[in-house]
Design goal:
There is one protein chain. The protein is α/β, with parallel strands linked by helices. It is built from eleven helices and nine strands. The strands form three sheets. The chain has a five-stranded antiparallel sheet with strand order 1-2-7-8-9. A two-stranded parallel ribbon has the order 3-4.
């Protein structure tokens, strides 16, 4: 029997199969898409939760660090004078990093390690944090470059120039790669960035070095963060890496000799060479001799090392301090899962800085009498003499949390 090609087919099973296959494909696609989106959203949610937990872990480390600073300040005020040379033991309150979960020292007994593990297991803290406190008094204050006091301006300028010059003198490889730099010009550019006028200390207009379309112009104000150094003409990444660990924007208007790094100590005077600075650090770390007790103790020591004390730290004189630290920088890092958060803060003691500044700077010349007597000779300015600070016991114990002047969350 032959089929008539004009006769329509009545069997539509093939079309039904195609429709069914299409529906299955669409449902499979939707299922895969929904499942993928759910996984992405879950991953994002877990990541955000990890970041939130890491943030609060970092904040916990910061709050514990602020508590340690507070305890140190109270203990120093109450017991510092009675401890004498032994008062440096109070530095242990803030100087050691605080890590959670804690790890037992290598020489700890198995019982101690076991008890420590049990304590950590019982803790409700989920994650880890690491908080480190450093002293700010061991760094050079960049804001002194625009201080109203000429003595502080000159001292900060000389110290920063010496810091860069020492690197050129002592590191041959670094000097070869940076033979064209002029330390004084770089420090002048930093000063121009902050000072109020538009005249460059190197000559010409300050804006001439920042002529690019997208270049930042000198804001003529104090820097808000050290990262601004990257924007200053002449401050390359290599220069920044030299300066940033050794400078601050919240210093104590001088240098704490007992805490300063090797490079900062050498910047005080060109006479402090590699050998002498090594002996200084060795002496202040000696458990029997302890840190330097004052300017006389320090001067006698460097004189014994061959320093000409008559010319040491004279032009201009850099204020040197030997007391306990009172300005701090705190860095707390929290970790949870794959997330990490950092909090950075600066703690500043305004009253203590004021005392140190008044003691370090020369007293003003008194105004002469309007009608001096006939035998009165010329008015002579009195010699600079430190203003005595009130005894620790006379100062009221500060209330509340330490003063935070900078806070950054990353």
């Amino acid at each position: 029997m032959s089929l008539d090609p004009t006769t329509p087919l009545k069997n539509q099973k093939g079309i039904a199969i195609l429709v069914a296959l299409s529906a299955v494909l669409i449902m499979t696609f939707l299922a895969v898409e929904v499942g993928y989106n759910s996984q992405v959203e879950m991953a994002i949610g877990v990541s955000q939760l990890d970041r939130l937990k890491a943030y609060y872990l970092a904040k916990s480390g910061m709050n514990l660090s602020l508590l340690r600073v507070k305890i140190f300040k109270v203990a120093s005020q109450k017991f510092g004078s009675s401890l004498g040379k032994e008062k440096t033991i109070l530095d242990m309150i803030w100087s050691f990093p605080f890590v959670w979960p804690p790890s037992a020292p290598p020489d700890a007994s198995s019982i101690t390690k076991s008890e420590l593990k049990k304590a950590v297991a019982k803790s409700t803290i989920d994650g880890s944090f690491n908080a480190v406190i450093d002293g700010e008094g061991s760094r050079i204050d960049l804001t002194d470059l625009i201080s109203p006091s000429k003595a502080l301006r000159d001292a900060a300028n000389a110290q920063l120039v010496q810091l860069l010059q020492n690197r050129l003198n002592e590191d041959d490889d670094w000097a070869r790669d940076h033979r064209s730099i002029k330390p004084q010009e770089i420090i002048n550019n930093i000063t121009d960035w902050m000072d109020a006028d538009s005249q460059s200390l190197n000559g010409g207009d300050e804006g001439g070095l920042y002529s690019g379309k997208d270049s930042a112009k000198p804001p003529n104000r104090s820097m808000k963060t050290l990262q601004e150094l990257h924007m200053i003409a002449g401050v390359t990444d290599d220069i920044f890496n030299i300066l940033s660990p050794r400078v601050t924007l919240y210093g104590l208007k001088g240098i704490n000799v007992n805490l300063a790094s090797k490079e900062v100590l050498q910047s005080i005077d060109a006479q402090i060479n590699e050998k002498i600075v090594t002996e200084i650090i060795k002496r202040r770390s000696d458990p029997d001799l302890g840190p330097f007790t004052g300017a006389d103790d320090f001067n006698n020591f460097v004189r014994a090392q061959g320093v000409n004390i008559e010319k040491f730290n004279k032009t201009p004189p850099i204020p040197l301090y030997f007391d306990s630290e009172f300005n701090f920088r705190i860095k707390s890092v929290g970790n949870h899962g794959r997330a990490q958060r950092e909090i950075f803060a600066i703690v500043y003691d305004f009253d203590k800085v004021k005392e140190q500044l008044v003691a370090a700077l020369p007293t003003p010349t008194p105004t002469p009498s309007a009608s001096p007597g006939p035998s009165a000779g010329p008015t002579v300015a009195p010699k600079a003499s430190p203003t005595p600070s009130p005894s620790p016991s006379a100062r009221p114990i500060p209330k509340g949390a330490p003063s935070i002047v900078f806070w950054e969350e990353m």
